[in-house]
Design a protein that fits this description.
9 strands, 5 helices, 31% helix, alpha+beta, 250 residues, single chain, two-stranded antiparallel ribbon
Length: 250
């Protein structure tokens, strides 16, 4: 089954429910990928400032939409991101990737059109955005990566006939296509990410050590609690904070 990457229908006409301005975000799911360098890369939601006509991706903005991508494409996107790194198409950077956002399509100058974006259905994501600017003259995402994602139902903004949106990938199929493409990716791509890189193994070991330490510390009373007191919620919070701070220093 192939997905028509040139389908002109909006996502709601393809069975994905409501998009901008009445986005249904109940089916969105957060996404994080452990990069081959052992860094956790979170695909965040777009954050938009109230009353502004321009898109903003500053993490200090005052409006955040929960979730990252639709649940139906969550595993598919995760596999494609990991394989794209394994094949050296990209080097995922924390804070440079975004997913869903309840908004209209953005122009290269940052202003909005009146047409719902596929981001507003949780069907689009932007990858390593600062290096792959919408309308930019240069980009780091190669054509080979665009073709890989095409194979699994995603249109790449680098294939747009006019202004290139180099960072942008959007799923063009229906919910049933998402299921079929996920099964296809499991068969064809999962084996490429089965084996961890040395950096990933080290990162997982650090996480495991931290969790072991956290569990151990949570079983102890806080400094402000007496030996006759039961452990209190505030004491638990202090113990967590202390453990996190110590872990960050090591």
């Amino acid at each position: 089954m192939a997905v028509d990457l040139n389908d002109k229908r909006r996502a709601d006409a393809r069975g994905w429910g409501a998009g901008w301005p009445d986005c249904d975000r109940s089916g969105w799911r957060s996404l994080a990928v452990l990069s081959i360098q052992g860094r956790m890369v979170k695909v965040a939601s777009h954050r938009l400032k109230k009353g502004q006509a321009r898109a903003s991706f500053d993490f200090e903005e005052d409006v955040e939409f929960p979730g990252s991508v639709r649940d139906e494409i969550h595993e598919l996107v995760s596999l494609l991101l990991q394989v794209s790194e394994r094949r050296a198409y990209i080097n995922l950077q924390p804070g440079w990737c975004w997913g869903g956002g309840c908004r209209a399509i953005k122009r290269p100058d940052g202003t909005f059109t009146d047409t719902p974006s596929n981001h507003s259905w949780g069907l689009a994501l932007d990858i390593n955005a600062p290096e792959n600017v919408f309308g930019g003259a240069t980009h780091t995402i190669p054509e080979a990566m665009g073709k890989l994602w095409n194979t699994y139902g995603f249109r790449w903004g680098g294939d747009y006939p006019d202004s290139k949106d180099w960072m942008h990938f959007e799923f063009m199929g229906r919910p049933e296509d998402a299921r079929a493409m996920t099964q296809k990716a499991r068969r064809e791509l999962a084996k490429e990410v089965d084996e961890l890189t040395p950096e990933q193994e080290k990162a997982i070991a650090r996480m495991a050590d931290f969790l072991d330490t956290l569990v151990e510390r949570l079983g102890k009373k806080g400094e402000t609690e007496t030996k006759d007191d039961e452990a209190t919620p505030s004491g638990a919070a202090n113990r967590i904070a202390t453990t996190v701070l110590k872990a960050e220093k090591t």
